[in-house]
Design goal:
Layout lengths: L1 H26 L14 H4 L4 E5 L2 E6 L10 E6 L10 H9 L3 E5 L13 H8 L4 E7 L1 H15 L7 E5 L15 E7 L7 H6 L9 E5 L23 H17 L1
Parallel strand pairs: 3-4, 3-5, 5-6, 6-7, 7-8
Antiparallel strand pairs: 1-2, 2-4
């Protein structure tokens, strides 16, 4: 009996350790650090992103550098699930060089599902006199679509554009009848977001929504956070994929 009890104790200890090992990286997030592995070229190096607190939460904000005229468009980017905001700093810098103010919010546990409506306070703070484009990668894209669908049901339209990166609207987030411009970016070799579901998500977007496939790219190429478990094997470089992603987004913003 004592031997059984000892073995049960060992099993419980191992199970507890395994549970802590799984939960720890989710509960304890890495610091929000600006400027790590985000400069693509000399132009993007001139951008000086900062961390600003809005309604009690931090946000990474990138504004056009000196000498670049600020455009009348605000871009808000929801990060992918469990991905730190700085993974998308490369995109924020590249857009800032082109005149766009870009804001990347920090979510609790790095999960946009904890507060899909975060964009509301950011629009109020940064969006005066600007058109708003809401973007999101993976889970962040789904939650961006959810926010806009919820606002539409309430009779409001806080944004004029939506950019989904390896993402699709969740069930119930029907934006097909919204007065909204939409762009869906799909990585050709994505092993995380089901390509059929990403393409199928177009039915929940306005009829004029455009889909762009990033050739040879994988799910993790939208953010700089390293390889992702279950993802595909790319046949293009990250730099080439980022060029295509940036070109598609800037064309969309300028339209």
């Amino acid at each position: 009996m004592r031997r059984v009890a000892r073995w049960l104790g060992v099993v419980l200890a191992v199970a507890l350790a395994a549970g802590v090992g799984v939960a720890w990286p989710i509960l304890v997030r890495a610091p929000l650090v600006v400027g790590q592995d985000a400069i693509t070229d000399a132009a993007s190096g001139r951008v000086v992103p900062v961390v600003e607190t809005v309604a009690g939460t931090d946000n990474l904000v990138a504004r056009p550098p000196a000498g670049v005229d600020e455009r009348d468009v605000l871009v808000i980017v929801y990060p992918g699930g469990l991905v730190r905001p700085q993974a998308y700093e490369w995109l924020a810098r590249a857009l800032a060089v082109r005149g766009y103010v870009t804001v990347i919010p920090v979510f609790s546990f790095d999960l946009a599902v904890t507060d899909p409506g975060r964009a509301g306070a950011l629009i109020e703070r940064f969006g005066a006199g600007k058109r708003v484009v809401l973007a999101g990668h993976s889970l962040g894209g789904a939650m961006a679509a959810q926010y806009l669908a919820d606002e539409r049901k309430a009779g409001r339209q806080p944004a004029s554009g939506l950019v989904l990166m390896a993402a699709y609207p969740p069930d119930g987030a029907d934006l097909s009848g919204a007065s909204l411009q939409a762009l869906s970016l799909r990585a050709e070799l994505d092993g995380v977001a089901d390509p059929a579901k990403v393409a199928g998500g177009l039915r929940l977007l306005p009829p004029a929504a455009r889909e762009v496939v990033i050739d040879g790219a994988v799910h993790s190429f939208f953010g700089r956070y390293g390889p992702q478990s279950g993802d595909g094997v790319p046949t293009t470089s990250r730099a080439e994929a980022e060029d295509e992603i940036l070109a598609a987004i800037t064309d969309f913003l300028a339209a």
